[in-house]
Amino acid sequence: MIQPSRDSGAAAAAISRSPRSAILRVSASLGGLALVLIAAAIFTPLFYSYANLVLVAQSVGVIGIVTIGQTFPLLVGGIDLSVGAVSGLTMVVIAVVSGGSNDHLLVAILIALALGIGVGLANAVLVTRRNTPPFVATFATFILVEGALLAWTQGTPSGEIPGALSPWGAGTLVGIPVPLFVFLALLAVCAVGLGRTTYGRRVYATGSNPIAARMTGIPVRVVITSTYVICAMCAVIVGILNSGYIGYVDNQLVNTINLNCIAAALIGGTTFIGGEGGVVQSALGVLVLAALLSFMLLLNTGIAGQLILEGGIILAAVWLQSSRQLGFDSLRRMRQCLVSARRPLSGGTPRP
Question: Domains (ranges, CATH) in the chain?
Fold first, then answer.
């Protein structure tokens, strides 16, 4: 008996993805970005000032990095709600271990990275070994880590960050914020990894149909675990950059990071169902979200308006994806009925 190759399922999944749907998602993101830019030009001309564009670029870099990480669990049908907590944990570890001294900064970063990977592994174990729904598993770790952060910060800005991180978080190159360059470099690496490697094909195969992927020899648990670890590592990078940008520990960033990365990924077309989207599409969603948030800030909508916007985006994305899935199910049932109607009866002729 001929056994299927280890990557035959991955290749099939990659082929089955519709290029037309990907083009439609990219076109929708670009159209949304164009509308935001036009509205900003009409209602808030200050949007195009140099100072504001630098802030938008800073937001794109920070939100983009954590969105890239969030894209990986989404591609396998999961989600990670602990990214904000991991980012906050990174800031606390850097402040505590380094004590504000550059001499202990490297050790602090390595410890923060190890703890972040530990959180990612914990999420993966709950999802793959205990069959805990990703939402429940990652929300539990979020609450656990956030509780520890709240106990240390007492809900107020605290701690001291080494000055050596300032150029990474708040510095610029040729007038462009450094976090944007970090985001672009990470985007290039992940785009190649997902689109041109065996690992990327396995990620899409696992998200499209984990049972079929497992039958073709793909180590589904390992693939899912890797996505949560990558997501946690991206959250650590964001925590390091935020430390350098702010200069102290701020627990209020936890919730905004979670909402921002999920909303940006959904705007770009990466779905909750798995196997659809990618880091490039999510990056387009980051551009749209960063422009929208800056636009609303200039309109003086405040934090309330931004939260309403992001919540509306997530609800709309979930509704559209659910509607599309119901449509696919209806079409599949209709096709099955047509095939059954054309089957020949025993001893007779095919039905008209």
Answer: 8-303 (1.10.3470)
